[in-house]
Amino acid sequence: MSVPFATIEHLADHVDETVTLRGWLYNKSSKGKLHFVQLRDGSGMVQCVLFKKNVPESLFDEVGTLGQESSLSLTGKVVADERAPGGFEIQVEDGQVLQVAEDYPITPKEHGADFLLSKRHLWLRSRRPWALLRIRDAVIFALREFFSERDFVCVDSPMFTPNACEGTSTLFEVDYFDRSVFLTQSGQLYAEASAMAHGKVYCFGPTFRAEKSKTRRHLTEFWMLEPEVAFADLRDICDLAEDMLCHVVKRVLERRRTELEVLERDISKLEAIQKPFPRITYDEAAQILLEDPGSEFKPGDDFGAPDETILSNRHDRPLMVTHYPSEVKSFYMKRDPEREDRCLCVDVLGSEGVGELIGGSQREDDLDLLLERIRKHDLPREAFEWFLDLRRYGTVPHSGFGLGLERCVGWIAGVEHVRECIPFPRTIYRVDP
RNA sequence: UCCCCGAUAGCUCAGCUGGUAGAGCAUCCGGCUGUUAACCGGAUUGUCGUAGGUUCGAGUCCUACUCGGGGAGCCA
Question: Which nucleotide minimizes the distance between its C1' and the CA of A116?
């Protein structure tokens, strides 16, 4: 008689049945003639109980010597037991050890960030990274679902680009046959081209910044989702960002409860993420900061990270700040027709003081104005000719934004550092493993 | 590029005004039929980041360097 395989995630469907689980030994404690094995199989973790009198003696002895992360399969009856973490346990009858692992470096005790990152290929197996990357998966799925339901087409932008989108200091240069090209730092310009073909598009892929940033909010390689919508104005794009964030949070709450609990996330903070998000202008935000003794903000400046924290901490949901001074923003953003020194842009600051999650704008759709800005910013016009074509042939008002995936995951999961929100983080001083 | 902090056992750390190195965990041995980071008893564990300097004597003080962490700027 063959025993069916089961996954720990779906054990509730197999109560009082005998199943075989295949996985790794996460932790073990022995009490003489009794072993408790915490088995993980990728889908979850469950306690397996081996009584000496219930299993083959060789298996009992062998399990007694197993080190952390040894691979094995265990067969037994699934029973509900209040004493077991998770509510279920396996009363083991038989099993097989696949490999005896020795001296696994990551113990159940505390470790430092440097050590864990140097062992990232193994650290992925630990509870916290496991939960976090499953939340990341749910965020990605929910984002694609959201845009698909709204008839957006996913049209990805290239990774290799011939030139900078804004300046050249933050680009990684790559040998490309007999010339050099750069790794993209934004898919936006290409997304604008795609939007003129499909109306509503988004691109989603890795993005590279050679900035020497060393903060909890920065990676040199991160994932960015960038929708671009023809005929949309600033207000449309703000509405879109708001709906998108609400959808993603709702889905994570539905599908990743267990993982949020592993991270000890305060669920009520996520349940508060509902429409409408507060929207204020740069000038209103500036007024708040000028009255705050904790801020060093000066009128006309962009907001620093501490300023963003002050602003976002005033609300229990994301804050949208619009109409920044044109001077501190990019050349492609459209000016406010009512006030030339302000542009039609929005930054979305996550709640709980996490800072910028989204940056977006209505795009400049007038050829002459765009030419003038390219000149003013000293950008190489030849490189932008294809982009200018979009204004020559049927230009329309259009808008878009960029969402930093890892920042979004960190915000939802309540995790401070973005390096935990991507499987293998790349930072200025770390590209291994 | 700038500012701040750190580097001692496999891991996390302690080591006072300078006097030849310590704990917990991991590992190994023994005990235990309900553990939740199990517990109890025993054992093993070191180029104190590197190179100079001061000193009778440096883990400790000084200088430089290397590596890493946090932050600023910039951004998502």
Answer: B11
Q: Domains of chain A, with CATH numbers? A: 8-99 (2.40.50.140), 120-421 (3.30.930.10)
Query: A112 CA, B6 C1': separation in Å?
Result: 12
pTM here? 0.92
pLDDT digits (tens, 9 = 90+) for A387-404: 999 999 999 999 999 999
Which nt sits closest to A85, CA to C1'?
A: B36
Whole-number distance in Å between A63 CA and B39 C1': 19
d(CA A92, CA A62): 14
Is pLDDT above 70 for A129?
yes
Give the contacts of A375 (CB within 8 A, at least 6 positions apart).
A381
- Average pLDDT over every residue of A243-262: 95
- Which one is predicted more confidently, A170 or A91? A91
Q: How far is the CA of A394 from the C1' of B18 (A)?
A: 79
Beta strands in A301-413 (DSSP E): 319-322, 335-336, 339-343, 345-350, 355-362, 398-404
pLDDT per position as a tens digit, A266-303: 999 999 999 999 999 999 999 998 888 878 888 888 88
DSSP string, A280-294: EEHHHHHHHHHT-TT
Nearest nucleotide to A360, CA against C1' atoms: B76
| H or E element, residue A376 | helix A367-376
Whether the predicted interface score ipTM is above 0.90 = no
Whole-number Å distance, CA A142 to C1' B29? 53
**Cα(A9)–Cα(A19) distance, integer angstroms:** 13
Residue A317 CA to nucleotide B36 C1', Å? 36
CA to C1' distance (Å), from A415 to B13 = 25
- Cβ(A407)–Cβ(A413) below 8 Å: no
- A22-33 pLDDT, tens digit per residue, is 999 998 888 888
Q: Which nucleotides of B are covered by protein (CB under 7 A)?
A: 1-2, 10-13, 24-29, 31-39, 67-76
Q: Which amino acid is at A90?
A: I
Pairing of strands A173-176, A71-80: unpaired
Nucleotide nearest to A188 (CA to C1'): B76
